[in-house]
Amino acid sequence: PNLHPIVPAIQLSSAAAGVWTLSGPGVILAALVFRLERAPEITQAFTDFFWITTFAPWPTFMTQGFAWAYAVLSDPRPNPSIPKIFALVNIIVPIAFTPAIAMHVPKTGPVAWNGALSYWIPGAAFVLQLLIDSFCLANVVRIELAEGKYFTDIYTDTFSREEKETPDQNGLHANA
């Protein structure tokens, strides 16, 4: 409620960038196996490119998490739809992604592409965040549908099932 319009725009643009962040490495793997007769050096370059492009673009997910957290924490209602723990998860977990910024420098060790700080901790944190976010958002949808609402409106207007759509003289719905 009364959230600045830039916040959902940031979240949406981060989510859109995240889609390409996740599908881009898949395209790299598809190109890798397209011609299996390539030299091993080319195959190795493709796999290195795959791993780096999989974990290096963490800022898109960090931005999305921070936008979610800001939206939840700025909700002034006494009983907000989304619990504050959702915001805390979306602040703390993306910070675990930051060691991946150095994954392209060392070839071995905890910050390497397969190290604990660049791969295992960010990967586990991402899965944890995905599960918690999915559970919280599904719960919000379930509660609001039970209350007769269509969705959580982040702007000042509220839409609910009580509002009847009335067709105008052309048969179009005025409220649509």
UniProtKB/TrEMBL annotation:
<feature type="transmembrane region" description="Helical">
    <location>
        <begin position="85"/>
        <end position="105"/>
    </location>
</feature>
<protein>
    <submittedName>
        <fullName>Uncharacterized protein</fullName>
    </submittedName>
</protein>
<keyword id="KW-0472">Membrane</keyword>
<feature type="transmembrane region" description="Helical">
    <location>
        <begin position="49"/>
        <end position="73"/>
    </location>
</feature>
<feature type="transmembrane region" description="Helical">
    <location>
        <begin position="117"/>
        <end position="141"/>
    </location>
</feature>
<keyword id="KW-0812">Transmembrane</keyword>
<feature type="transmembrane region" description="Helical">
    <location>
        <begin position="12"/>
        <end position="34"/>
    </location>
</feature>
<keyword id="KW-1133">Transmembrane helix</keyword>
